Structures are given as structure tokens and as C-alpha cells.
């Protein structure tokens, strides 16, 4: 499990909801987290990111216990559905926040920003404001910000959900290209079985606040033992 993520018998109580998770996300692979609305998919991702702290159990990243670590102390980058860009800041500054929250950027840092923009197909967009960009371009900026952080784990919470089908396809291609280049460990929350088939190496199915299935994508796509899972897979 070296380099991957382990959720080791974690429990978390949020209001009237109790979550119990035990699963592994393999290193250098794309793991899709799927399941019905409200099942706990984003909660699982938030535990890995550090936005939630478990009541019991451990979270390990590359064999290191990060259970009580602040999100900034974890080796992860995040891409959200809403891009999380600051409208009053230009593209280069938004990306620079991924390197230094204080925006104390060196010439090397600024070159890294320009390189990241080239890699996501937005060369020359440094001075543009988010409001002048399309939805797909804003999401590419979010990917560029994740790139400059150079973290071994990338977490994505339904990053393509607000995009039209064409943009969803191009962003999925970009994610796969960047994953092949970096060899990072990717955890993506999605509602779309087509994205699972296209992107994932490994699948975790969450139901009623617990992991109901985990395994390789090829085996997952053939599963028909769990009613909720079958409902997810069938059109």
C-alpha cells in the first residue's frame, strides 16, 4: 500500500449521521468514489483532505498517519466542482495561491505557473480574470493550481458536474493526461458511471455512510450483488 491512501476503521458522527469507512486507494491509480446522493462520498473525501477529523480510526497517506494533520500539512491538492477561484484576482494569482498563500512568489514560481498554464492549454492567460473565462477554462485553471502544488495526491469532488458533455469529455482527457505525466494518486467523487468506466482503475462504492464495495474497475462493472450498485450501473 506504499504511496496510497488507507482509511483504517474510521468512524465519524456528523449530527444524526454516523459514517464508518474502511478502504484502500492504491498508489498511482485513479480511484472513483461513487454511490447514491447523501451516502457519504464527499465526507470520505473530506476525511482524506483533513476538512473532517474522525472520531476513531486512522487515515494514512503513503504509510504516514495524517489523521490529526491540518489540511495544509497533508500531501494533497484539491479540485472542486465550483473551481474555488477568486473573482477579483487574475489567473496567475489564483494559481500562485497554490504555491504560497501569502503570494510571495519567486521567478521560479512564476515560471512554474506559466508552465502549468501551458500544460492545461491556457498559455498567455495569466492576466485574465475568472469572470472572462468559460466554465471549462476556469476548471483548467483549477487543475493548473493543483499542478503547481506538486502534491502526490489529487482529490476531486465532482469536478465536471457543472460542465456540458463536450467539456466533460475534454476535462476527463486532461485529467488522464496529467495523471499519466505525474503518476499521482487520484481520488475522484462522481455520480457518472461513464466517468467511472473511462477514468477509474479502482472503485469504492459508498452506501448509507459505509463502504459497500471496493475493487478493480473491471470487477466492479460486472457486479450485480448490491441493489444500489446495480441501480447506479444500469441506465
Provide an overview of this structure:
It is globular and about 50 Å long. The longest helix has 18 residues, at 165-182. The chain has two domains: 5-75 and 151-233, 3-Layer(aba) Sandwich (Rossmann fold); 87-149, no CATH class. It has helices at 41-49, 91-96, 107-119, 135-149, 165-182, 193-199, 217-220, 227-233, and strands at residues 5-14, 17-25, 30-34, 56-61, 64-65, 76-80, 153-157, 185-189, 202-207, 210-216. The protein has 235 residues and is α/β, with parallel strands linked by helices. The strands form two sheets. The protein has a six-stranded mixed sheet with strand order 6-7-8-3-9-10, sandwiched between helices. The chain has a four-stranded antiparallel sheet with strand order 2-1-4-5, with helices on one face. A hairpin with a 2-residue loop joins strand 9 and strand 10. The protein contains eight helices and ten strands.
Index terms:
six-stranded mixed β-sheet, 34% helix, globular, Rossmann fold, alpha/beta, 235 residues
Can you tell me the overall shape?
globular
* Total helical segments: 8
CATH architecture of the largest domain: 3-Layer(aba) Sandwich
Oligomer: single chain
Order of helices and strands: EEEHEEEHHHEHEHEEHH
Arithmetic mean of pLDDT: 91
**Rg measurement, Å:** 18 Å
How many runs of DSSP E, i.e. beta strands? 10
* Domain unit count: 2
- Class computed from helices, strands and strand pairing: alpha/beta
CATH superfamily of the largest domain: P-loop containing nucleotide triphosphate hydrolases
List the helices and strands and how they pair.
Elements: E1 5-14, E2 17-25, E3 30-34, H1 41-49, E4 56-61, E5 64-65, E6 76-80, H2 91-96, H3 107-119, H4 135-149, E7 153-157, H5 165-182, E8 185-189, H6 193-199, E9 202-207, E10 210-216, H7 217-220, H8 227-233
Parallel strand pairs: 3-8, 3-9, 6-7, 7-8
Antiparallel strand pairs: 1-2, 1-4, 4-5, 9-10
Helix pairs in contact: 3-4, 4-5
Amino acid at each position: 500500500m506504499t504511496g496510497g491512501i488507507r482509511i483504517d476503521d474510521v468512524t465519524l458522527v456528523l449530527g444524526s449521521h454516523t459514517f464508518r469507512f474502511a478502504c484502500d486507494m492504491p498508489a498511482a491509480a485513479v480511484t472513483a468514489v461513487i454511490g447514491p446522493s447523501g451516502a457519504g462520498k464527499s465526507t470520505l473525501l473530506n476525511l482524506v483532505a483533513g476538512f473532517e477529523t474522525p472520531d476513531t480510526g486512522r487515515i494514512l497517506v503513503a504509510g504516514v498517519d495524517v489523521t490529526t494533520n491540518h489540511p495544509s500539512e497533508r500531501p494533497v491538492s484539491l479540485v472542486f466542482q465550483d473551481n474555488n477561484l477568486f473573482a477579483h484576482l487574475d489567473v496567475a494569482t489564483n494559481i500562485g495561491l497554490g504555491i504560497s498563500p501569502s503570494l510571495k512568489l519567486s521567478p521560479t514560481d512564476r515560471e512554474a505557473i506559466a508552465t502549468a498554464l501551458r500544460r492545461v492549454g491556457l498559455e498567455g492567460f495569466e492576466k485574465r480574470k475568472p469572470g472572462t473565462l468559460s466554465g471549462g477554462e476556469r476548471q483548467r485553471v483549477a487543475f493548473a493550481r493543483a499542478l503547481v502544488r506538486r502534491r502526490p495526491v489529487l482529490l476531486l469532488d465532482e469536478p465536471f458536474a457543472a460542465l456540458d458533455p463536450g467539456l466533460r469529455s475534454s476535462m476527463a482527457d486532461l485529467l488522464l493526461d496529467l495523471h499519466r505525466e505525474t503518476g499521482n494518486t487520484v481520488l475522484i467523487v462522481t455520480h457518472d458511471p461513464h466517468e467511472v468506466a473511462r477514468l477509474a482503475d479502482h472503485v469504492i462504492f459508498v452506501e448509507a455512510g459505509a463502504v459497500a464495495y471496493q475493487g478493480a474497475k473491471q470487477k466492479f462493472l460486472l457486479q450485480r450483488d448490491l441493489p444500489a450498485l446495480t441501480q447506479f450501473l444500469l441506465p
